[in-house]
Amino acid sequence: MSLESHNALLDAVMTAAPVIPVIVIDRVEDALPLARALVAGGLPVLEVTLRTPAALEAMRAMAGVPGAIVGAGTVLDATQYDAAIAAGARFVVSPGLTERLAAAARERAVPLLPGTATASEVMAAREAGFTRLTFFPAESAGGVSALKGLCSVFRDVRFCPTGGITAAIAPAYLALPQVACVGGSWPMPADAIQAGDWARVEALAREAAGLRRGAKG
Ligand code: 3PG
What we know:
Elements: H1 3-15, E1 19-23, H2 31-40, E2 45-49, H3 55-62, E3 69-73, H4 78-86, E4 92-94, H5 99-106, E5 112-116, H6 119-127, E6 132-135, H7 143-153, E7 158-161, H8 170-174, E8 182-184, H9 190-195, H10 198-209
Parallel strand pairs: 1-2, 1-8, 2-3, 4-5, 5-6, 6-7
Helix pairs in contact: 2-3, 2-10
This protein binds 3-phosphoglyceric acid.
The site of 3-phosphoglyceric acid (3PG) has 11 residues, from β8.
């Protein structure tokens, strides 16, 4: 599948809501109520990071929630890419990009949203055919002002900044015209998941879903 058709799929993922919840899940039994709360709050795109043993089974459960668009995060290689697809991922996110991961993306129907943090990394990703990128780790890589600088030179790139973003700082990223959405864990705090406080998760998701985006070119 061509990377152009991947772009169309990624654009749909990146514009479905202003915030992509980046989920680290420890207990499979939390997957369904967590996904339902986020979707009910207006955040249908769910990035489940492959950092815990529960992640793939959690993804399978979440993929069955009506309206949910489930993807995998922290995908580092082709083996994890395939495991994510088998678990129902409709997109995969990686913290960076390697030649082998880029080749894997070209051979698969499920699109890759790779991570970049510097101008050289964005150039390498563009050369490999990727123009939908995360800016990761956003806050420690220079925050809004660094991303603004990247946007001013890479006019064809659409970014999803992720990493250290809070409800307070998210609007500044979303105001940048090339920022389609932001990723973050703040809508589902670990203590809320631990306590099964799904009403709190839904309320935080609703606030996040109400964030406004800047004009898109
Ligand atoms: C990640 O863990 O991939 C990102 O940094 C998002 O999580 P955070 O919002 O907690 O930084």
